[in-house]
């Protein structure tokens, strides 16, 4: 089981704080694809170029492998000063 969290504007756009998926040994990109298969209306939000990802609180790219028990977080780019 993988726990997926959504933060900031993504949480508002998807109207979802978190979701759990029964998948194992997949890439972050495949996690997104699985989410879109279950929720086709999420495609425009999740497939945007500006969606960042973290696995177990570490920034990752779309090719990073996720395993059962991991926590994946998606969020928009963060700016600060």
UniProtKB/TrEMBL annotation:
<dbReference type="InterPro" id="IPR003749">
    <property type="entry name" value="ThiS/MoaD-like"/>
</dbReference>
<protein>
    <recommendedName>
        <fullName>Molybdopterin synthase sulfur carrier subunit</fullName>
    </recommendedName>
</protein>
<dbReference type="InterPro" id="IPR016155">
    <property type="entry name" value="Mopterin_synth/thiamin_S_b"/>
</dbReference>
<dbReference type="InterPro" id="IPR012675">
    <property type="entry name" value="Beta-grasp_dom_sf"/>
</dbReference>
<dbReference type="Pfam" id="PF02597">
    <property type="entry name" value="ThiS"/>
</dbReference>
<keyword id="KW-0547">Nucleotide-binding</keyword>
<comment type="similarity">
    <text>Belongs to the MoaD family.</text>
</comment>
<dbReference type="InterPro" id="IPR044672">
    <property type="entry name" value="MOCS2A"/>
</dbReference>
């Amino acid at each position: 089981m993988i726990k997926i969290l959504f933060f900031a504007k993504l949480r508002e756009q998807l109207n979802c704080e978190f979701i759990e998926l029964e998948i194992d040994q997949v890439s972050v990109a495949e996690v997104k694809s699985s989410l879109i298969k279950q929720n086709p209306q999420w495609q425009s939000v999740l497939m945007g170029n500006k969606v960042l990802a973290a696995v177990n609180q570490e920034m990752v790219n779309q090719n990073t492998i996720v395993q059962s028990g991991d926590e994946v977080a998606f969020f928009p780019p963060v700016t600060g000063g």
